[in-house]
Design brief:
This protein is an all-alpha fold and 235 residues long. The chain is built from eleven helices and no strands.
């Protein structure tokens, strides 16, 4: 934790200097790669993730989704003090540029994790991801995030390349209302029907998946969502 806190402090200092100039300019930077280098200690080179499970992979997620998250941190609707601080005074067009940059990156996914749960829990996780549990009001994860779990444009994220502990933490945040979305809050509805073991099972199974042949999010409207979340869900 001490090492992580030190890294966050360094990132805060670097990003504050780099982004303050851009935020005060009428022109957005032409070379975004140099402006997001300070994101690398937490989110990896080109947003590809690191070995630290607490910071997610950003690369390749739909720009709409990433922009929604940046705006949520900026407004305080999503809570993580370093991100809240960094984004509070940045203009929204600059946030959209950051989101578009990371959405266009395609570094390889990290190596799939070795499961640390029982075979029964792995089977439960796969069943929930692929088929859901209609008896408990749980749609399949794949019904929103796609059959290959790569997400759908413009704002439904892929679920691959994330560590089990991060997935568990985010599902827990949805379940307990510490992470929210603009209504209709579809993820909170779904996560509220999951048990603790369901969360652990889904996280373990998702983190063990290998990279698909084509990791790019599918086009908008490629499949019908199980909820009326609109064309651009604010997850």
């Amino acid at each position: 934790m001490a090492v992580r806190a030190h890294i966050v402090c360094l990132v805060l200092a670097a990003l504050t200097m780099v982004w303050a100039e851009a935020a005060s300019s009428d022109d957005l930077p032409a070379d975004m790669a140099s402006h997001v280098l300070a994101c690398a200690p937490c989110h990896g080179a080109n947003g590809g993730g690191t070995n630290d499970p607490y910071f997610p992979r950003l690369a390749g997620k739909p720009a709409g989704y990433l922009n929604n998250q940046l705006r949520a941190f900026k407004s305080g609707r999503r809570h993580y003090p370093p991100m809240n601080y960094l984004l509070e005074y940045l203009p929204e067009d600059y946030l959209a540029t950051i989101a578009a940059y990371f959405a266009a990156q395609r570094p390889p996914l990290p190596q799939a994790a070795v499961p640390d749960v029982s075979q029964a829990m792995m089977a439960r996780g796969e069943a929930l991801v692929r088929h859901g549990d209609s008896a408990h009001g749980i749609p399949a994860c794949s019904s929103c995030h796609g059959p290959t779990l790569t997400g759908m444009e413009p704002a439904i994220p892929g679920l691959l390349g994330l560590r089990a502990i991060y997935i568990s933490a985010q599902l827990g945040a949805w379940r307990y209302g510490t992470r929210t979305a603009i209504a209709p809050d579809c993820m909170q509805i779904v996560a509220g029907h999951l048990t603790e073991d369901d969360v652990k099972s889904v996280a373990a199974w998702l983190s063990s998946r290998p990279a698909p042949a084509d990791p790019v999010p599918v086009a908008a409207g490629s499949y019908v969502l199980p909820f009326t979340c609109g064309s651009e869900p604010q997850q």
